[in-house]
Amino acid sequence: MSPLLFILAICTNSLQRIIKAPVKYLLFASDLVIFMIEKDIKKIEKEQQKTINIIARLGEDRDLRFDSSKTKYMYFSRRNLLPHILQLKMNDEIIQ
Predict the structure, then answer these.
(1) pTM to 2 decimal places
(2) Contacts for 3 with CB less than 8 Å, ≥ 6 apart
(3) 28, 39 Cβ separation under 8 angstroms
(4) Sequence-distant (≥ 6) Cβ neighbours of residue 32 within 8 angstroms
(5) What is the distance between the alpha carbons of residues 10 and 74, in angstroms, rounded to a whole number?
(6) What pLDDT digit, counting tens, does each position of 29-64 carry?
């Protein structure tokens, strides 16, 4: 999908209404990044999954399907510890 179509179909005011704190987002062309700053890894997983589900539903409502194979997550920590591997899914597929 072209960046312009993506922005028109998904982003026109929709993201501001559906993505709620503590989750934030950045948009560049047809790339969307959702992120949050939080110490509790379980809260990160819960809030991120909730937001992914909402975004996926928004796409479905507009007859768009996000490609879960192109969807990735990254976890950053000052402690360099990964106490818990996130289990995030989109379209019933685990996000790598």
Answers:
(1) 0.81
(2) 29, 30
(3) no
(4) 10, 15, 25, 26, 55
(5) 23
(6) 778 889 999 888 889 889 999 999 998 888 888 787
Confidence of residue 24 (pLDDT cuts 50, 70, 90): very high
Task: Determine contact, residues 34/95, Cβ cutoff 8 Å.
Answer: no
Q: Which of 38, 32, 33 is nearest to 10 (CA)?
A: 32
Residue 72, both tokens: 């990735």
Rg (CA), the chain: 14
| CB-CB contact of 90 with 71 (8 Å) | yes
Residue 59: strand, helix, or coil: helix
Domain ranges of the chain: 3-94
CA distances from 66 to 18, 58, 59, 80 (A): 17, 10, 7, 30
The residue ranges of DSSP E strands in the chain, in sequence order, are: 24-28, 31-35, 89-90, 93-94
Query: Residue type for 58, please?
Result: L
Question: Three-state SS for 60?
Answer: helix
